[in-house]
Design goal:
Length: 350
Amino acid sequence: MAKRAKKANKARKVTGSGGAAGAGGKTGREPRAPEISDRLRGKTLPHIGVLSGEDIEEVISLAEWFRDNRYDPTYSSLLQGRVQGLLFVYPSTRTRLGFEAAMAQLGGSNIYMRVEETQMGRGESIVDTAHAMDQSLDVLSARLWKQEEMDAFAANMKKPVVNACTPKDHVTHVIGELMTIKQFKGRLRGINLVYTGMARGILHSLIRCSPKLGINLVLAIPESYAATVDGNIMAEGKALAEKAGTRLEIVTDLKKAVEGADFIQASTLIRSMLAGEQSPEEKAVEVPKWTVTDEVLACAKPDVLYTHSGPAHRGVCATDSVMDGKKSVIPHEALNAIYAKKALLAMMVR
């Protein structure tokens, strides 16, 4: 994995820099920090659908520079004095760590709140909570049970709101996934991407953004999950795919789905193992048929790569040999997701 990452970083040039420095290293001259555009300044991000393909590409470009020059001090005080609120309905590892680290690296501070620790937990309305948060925060990143709750915060706050995971979106994680594809495959356009896991946030984000970036997307999900994919979002994705000339379809057989795949992106397979709430559709899932194994990888292209957004439950989502194998780039996705968050905060909050 380390050799692949080094090769990928060496091959890629970062837009706006004087030379890419892999993982904070030296290239013989200091890289020039890119200017941060105003195209997302003050923007609210309730879901990835509000971003154009060009917006996403610009976020990725800045995030790549942050990743490859992580100790460059140019923007270490960009958000000094700014405060990010993190409002979460259930615990998080990667998303919380990523947002807190990103804000700290930009000079800002964080306030973490579980919903039950706020007056929302005692029945205060989202409208009144949003107005109160608007007075104290410069940005709110929220993980909520319903997309409608996210939309309500976005509608009632003047400060930027970022979706930190709902059933219909997980924008920052998906941008990290896109970065990982580009890092190891050198491009996004024309990539054959297979998603497998729950029909939740990551799936819906990929439906909305893949056609905008020229990605062919196959959703490898059980039949019980296919029935819960948001029809409006799927129709939106289909229209975008038709316009872009890309593939977007659901396949309910994992081995068939990965045929011709360049990249397999997985997320949690069983919802109750992630958030505690048991969904009716998960009871119908035959786990062994949906566990990614070496045999499954053999059905894809020889150079296929595998990653997982986490948390990955070993023996359920994938076998140890897949997760720890030569085709796995899981640690790189976790890192990229941090810098996706950092780029978005830098572009939206300053």
